[in-house]
C-alpha cells in the first residue's frame, strides 16, 4: 500500500513538474500586457509602414474570407488536425481587435497568445512572426487599427481530439516553439540581414518551404529544404537544392524579377506561390526584394539530390521498367496535347511557355506540382511586370489518370531529363484530393 | 512587329512542311506560336471550346459573342466567390488586383468580339403544356406573381444587351436549369442588387424547367448579336435594378474594343 502511495506521489510530482516546465516554456519572453499602454494616435507614416509590413506578411490573404470583407477573418484553413478559422483583425470592439493594446498584439505575434491569454494555433505562423521586431509589430498594429471596423464574430475552430485542447497545444509549443526576435548576424552585412529578417519573419517562407513532421512542426534543421504544403497537395520546393528551387547560381536580378513579376528567365511561379507573388512580394520595394534575393542566393546549398525526410517521393527512376508502351503512349499524348506550346523537343517558347527539357520543376523528385498543373492548369500572377500572363489549360476532363501519368513519365525521361516515372496511383490521389 | 518578305517565305515553307508531314509522315505538331490574346486564353478554350461544350461534370457554356461586361462580371464572380466552380476559381486567383482586372477585361472583350455560328438547338422532349408555360413566362412574365418577362432585359430575340446582359440562346436545357437552380439555392450570385436572385426566387422548380425547356428549344434569329440598348419597357412593366448592369452603362453603346 505504502509503495503504491509513494509511486502515486512520485508520479504526481513528476507530472506537476512536467506541467510546470510546459507552462514556463509557454510564457517565456512575454511582455506584461497589464502595463498601462496609452494607445497613442498613430501617425500616418506609422500606418503606412504597417500597411507595407502587412503586405510583406501577406496577412490579408488568410484573414479574409473568399468574397468577405478585408481583414474580417473567417477563412477556413484546412490542416491535418482539422479546420482553423482565421480571426477578425479589424478594430471592432466586440468581434475584432478593438480593445487590444499594442502589447496584446505583440504577444500574439511574438508569443502566439491571444488577448485572453489563450494559446493560438500555429496555422497562424507565429513560429515565423516571432522573429518580427517590436517596432514592426507596433506599426502593423497601428495599420490594422486604422482599418474600418467590421462586426463579424470569429468562427470556432473545428479541430479533432486531442488537437482542440489547450493542453495539447501547450505541449506542442513546449516542444517546437520558442519566441525570439531575429538576431542579426554580425558577420554579414545589413542587406543580408534584412533579407534574412524578411524571409524568416514576416515572409514566413518556412511555413511552406520547410518540411513538417507528423505533428505539423517545421524541422529547423532542414530550413527551407522543401516541404509538402499540408492538405493542398502542392510541394514547396527546396530553396537550398540546386535540383529544385535553389537560386545560388541565379543572377540576383532574376530572383528579384521572380518575386516582383512572377516570371524570370529561369522559372515562373504558379499555384500557391503565384498567390504569394500576387498578394505579397510584388508589392515589396526593390531594396527589400534585393535583400531577400541576396539571402536566398547565399543560403547554403545542398549538393546531394535527396528528398526531404518526410516527403513521399516518386518511385526511383525505373524508366526502362515503366514499359515502352507507357512511354510511347506518353510521347503520343505529348505530341497531341502539349507540343503545340511546349515544343516538340520540350524546348518551350521564350517568355511564354516553359521548356520541359532540363526544367527542374519537371525533374525534381516530388511530382505533386506536375500533376496539379496538368490536371488543373494555371496562370502566373498578373503583375505590372507581367500584366498578361500566359496560361496552362486544365486537362482534368481530357486525360485519365493513366494518361496523365504516361505523359508526365514521358517528359521526365525525354530530351535528356532523367527522372522517375509518375504512377496513375499518384495522379488519382491528387485528383481525388487525398493526403499522401 | 513588321513582317518581312522572309517571314512570308518562311511561313509558306513551314506550311508546305506541315502539309507534307500530314500527307506522308506521322503528324508532328509544328511550333506555331503567335503572341496573341487567343494564345493567352488557351486555358479558357481548352474546356469551353469555340461554341461551348458538354463535359462529364456539366456544361461549359460558349464564350464567343457574349457581351464583354457580362463575361467580365462572371470572371470577377468566379474569382471573388460569387460563383463557385473550383477549376475557374483556381485559374483566376492569380489574376487579381488592378492589373488582373485589366487583363480579365481584355479577355472578356476578346471573346465578346468573336463571331462564330451557333449550334442548332437540340430537339426538345418537353410536353406542349410545359413549353407553353415556358413561352408565357419568357415573353410575358407573370404580373400577378411579380415575375418580369425574360425578354424585358434579355431582349425580344433573347440575344442579350451589350455590355452587361447575356443572350439566352444556344444553351442546352440542363445548363439553363442548373444556372437558374443555382440562383435559387444561392450558389450563383451577381453584383448587388442581385436582380436575377429576386426574379428566380419567385419561380417554382416547375417554372424553371418550363423556361429552360422552351428557351433551349428556340432557333437562333438571323442576327445573333446583342442589342446595344435595353428594349423599351412594355406597358405596365416595372424597371429592374441590377447591380451587374447599372443603367448608366447598360444603355450605352457596346464597350470600345481594345487593340
Question: What does this entry look like structurally?
Answer:
- The complex is a heterodimer of chains A (436) and B (259).
- In chain A, strand 4 and strand 5 form a beta hairpin.
- Chain A is 41% helix and 5% strand.
- Chain A has helices at residues 2-26, 44-56, 59-62, 102-111, 126-129, 134-145, 166-176, 190-200, 206-209, 252-261, 272-279, 286-297, 324-342, 360-363, 368-376, 401-413, 424-431, and strands spanning 76-79, 82-85, 158-159, 227-229, 234-236, 378-379, 391-392.
- Mean pLDDT of chain A is 91; it is low at 305-318.
- Chain A has three domains: 41-176; 190-297, Cytochrome Bc1 Complex, Chain D, domain 2 (Orthogonal Bundle); 324-431, Orthogonal Bundle (Cytochrome Bc1 Complex, Chain D, domain 2), CATH 1.10.760.10.
- In chain A, strands 1-2-3 form a three-stranded antiparallel sheet, with no helix packed on it.
- With 436 residues, chain A is mainly α.
- Chain B is an all-alpha fold.
- Chain B has a domain at 128-250: Cytochrome c-like domain (Cytochrome Bc1 Complex, Chain D, domain 2, Orthogonal Bundle).
- Chain B contains twelve helices and two strands.
- In chain B, a hairpin with a 2-residue loop joins strand 1 and strand 2 (58-60).
- The two termini of chain B are 14 Å apart.
- The chains are: A mainly alpha (436), B mainly alpha (259).
- Chain A binds chain B through residues 65-68, 262, 270, 274-275, 277-279, 335-336, 339-341, 343-344, 347, 349, 352-353, 376-384, 387-398, and chain B through 27-33, 35, 37, 39-47, 55-57, 80-82, 87, 90-97, 99-100, 102-103, 106.
Amino acid at each position: 500500500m505504502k509503495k503504491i502511495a509513494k509511486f502515486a506521489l512520485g508520479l504526481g510530482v513528476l507530472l506537476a513538474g512536467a506541467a510546470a516546465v510546459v507552462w514556463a516554456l509557454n510564457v517565456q519572453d512575454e511582455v506584461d500586457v497589464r502595463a498601462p499602454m496609452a494607445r497613442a494616435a498613430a501617425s500616418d507614416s506609422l500606418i503606412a509602414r504597417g500597411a507595407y509590413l502587412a503586405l510583406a506578411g501577406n496577412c490579408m490573404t488568410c484573414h479574409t474570407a473568399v468574397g468577405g470583407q478585408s481583414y474580417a477573418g473567417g477563412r477556413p484553413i484546412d490542416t491535418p488536425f482539422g479546420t482553423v478559422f482565421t480571426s477578425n483583425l479589424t478594430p471592432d470592439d466586440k468581434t475584432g481587435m478593438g480593445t487590444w493594446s499594442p502589447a496584446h498584439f505583440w504577444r500574439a505575434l511574438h508569443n502566439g497568445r491571444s488577448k485572453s491569454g489563450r494559446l493560438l494555433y500555429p496555422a497562424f505562423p507565429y513560429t515565423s512572426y516571432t522573429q518580427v521586431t517590436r517596432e514592426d509589430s507596433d506599426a502593423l498594429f497601428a495599420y490594422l487599427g486604422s482599418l474600418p471596423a467590421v462586426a463579424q464574430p470569429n468562427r470556432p475552430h473545428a479541430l479533432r481530439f486531442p488537437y482542440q485542447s489547450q493542453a495539447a497545444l501547450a505541449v506542442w509549443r513546449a516542444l517546437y516553439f520558442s519566441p525570439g526576435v531575429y538576431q542579426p548576424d554580425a558577420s554579414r552585412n545589413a542587406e543580408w540581414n534584412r533579407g534574412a529578417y524578411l524571409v524568416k519573419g514576416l515572409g514566413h517562407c518556412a511555413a511552406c518551404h520547410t518540411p513538417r513532421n507528423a505533428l505539423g512542426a517545421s524541422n529547423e534543421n532542414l530550413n527551407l529544404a522543401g516541404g509538402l504544403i499540408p492538405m493542398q497537395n502542392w510541394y514547396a520546393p527546396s530553396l537550398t537544392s540546386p535540383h529544385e528551387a535553389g537560386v545560388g547560381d541565379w543572377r540576383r536580378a532574376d530572383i528579384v524579377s521572380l518575386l516582383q513579376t512572377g516570371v524570370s528567365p529561369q522559372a515562373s511561379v504558379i499555384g500557391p506561390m503565384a498567390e504569394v507573388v500576387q498578394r505579397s512580394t510584388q508589392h515589396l520595394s526593390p531594396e527589400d526584394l534585393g535583400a531577400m534575393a541576396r539571402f536566398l542566393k547565399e543560403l547554403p546549398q545542398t549538393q546531394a539530390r535527396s528528398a526531404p525526410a518526410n516527403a513521399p517521393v516518386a518511385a526511383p527512376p525505373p524508366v526502362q521498367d515503366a514499359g515502352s508502351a507507357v512511354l510511347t503512349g506518353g510521347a503520343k499524348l505529348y505530341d497531341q496535347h502539349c507540343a503545340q506550346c511546349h515544343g516538340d523537343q520540350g524546348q518551350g517558347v521564350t517568355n511564354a511557355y516553359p521548356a520541359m527539357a532540363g526544367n527542374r520543376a519537371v525533374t525534381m523528385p516530388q511530382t505533386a506540382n506536375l500533376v496539379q498543373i496538368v490536371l488543373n492548369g494555371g496562370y502566373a500572377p498578373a503583375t505590372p511586370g507581367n500584366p498578361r500572363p500566359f496560361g496552362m489549360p486544365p486537362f482534368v476532363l481530357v486525360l485519365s489518370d493513366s494518361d496523365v501519368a504516361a505523359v508526365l513519365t514521358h517528359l521526365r525521361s525525354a530530351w535528356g531529363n532523367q527522372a522517375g516515372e509518375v504512377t496513375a496511383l499518384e495522379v488519382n490521389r491528387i485528383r481525388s484530393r487525398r493526403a499522401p | 512587329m513588321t513582317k518581312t518578305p522572309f517571314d512570308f517565305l518562311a511561313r509558306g515553307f513551314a506550311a508546305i512542311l506541315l502539309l507534307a508531314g500530314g500527307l506522308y509522315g506521322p503528324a508532328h505538331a509544328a511550333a506555331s506560336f503567335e503572341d496573341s490574346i487567343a494564345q493567352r486564353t488557351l486555358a479558357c478554350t481548352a474546356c469551353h471550346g469555340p461554341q461551348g461544350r458538354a463535359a462529364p461534370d456539366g456544361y461549359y457554356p460558349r464564350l464567343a459573342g457574349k457581351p464583354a461586361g457580362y463575361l467580365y462580371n462572371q470572371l470577377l464572380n468566379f474569382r471573388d466567390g460569387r460563383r463557385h466552380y473550383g477549376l475557374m476559381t483556381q485559374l483566376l486567383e492569380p489574376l487579381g488586383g488592378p492589373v488582373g482586372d485589366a487583363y480579365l477585361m481584355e479577355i472578356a472583350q476578346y471573346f465578346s468580339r468573336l463571331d462564330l455560328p451557333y449550334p442548332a438547338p437540340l430537339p426538345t422532349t418537353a410536353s406542349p403544356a410545359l413549353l407553353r408555360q415556358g413561352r408565357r413566362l419568357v415573353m410575358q412574365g407573370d404580373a400577378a406573381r411579380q415575375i418580369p418577362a425574360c425578354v424585358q432585359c434579355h431582349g425580344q430575340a433573347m440575344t442579350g444587351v451589350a455590355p452587361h446582359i447575356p443572350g439566352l440562346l444556344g444553351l442546352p436545357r440542363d445548363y439553363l436549369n442548373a444556372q437558374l437552380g443555382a440562383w435559387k439555392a444561392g450558389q450563383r450570385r451577381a453584383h448587388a442588387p442581385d436582380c436575377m436572385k429576386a426574379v428566380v426566387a419567385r419561380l417554382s422548380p416547375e417554372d424553371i424547367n418550363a423556361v429552360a425547356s422552351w428557351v433551349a428549344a428556340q432557333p437562333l434569329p438571323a442576327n445573333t448579336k446583342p442589342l446595344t440598348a435595353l428594349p423599351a419597357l412594355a406597358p405596365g412593366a416595372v424597371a429592374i435594378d441590377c447591380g451587374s448592369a447599372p443603367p448608366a452603362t447598360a444603355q450605352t453603346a457596346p464597350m470600345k474594343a481594345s487593340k
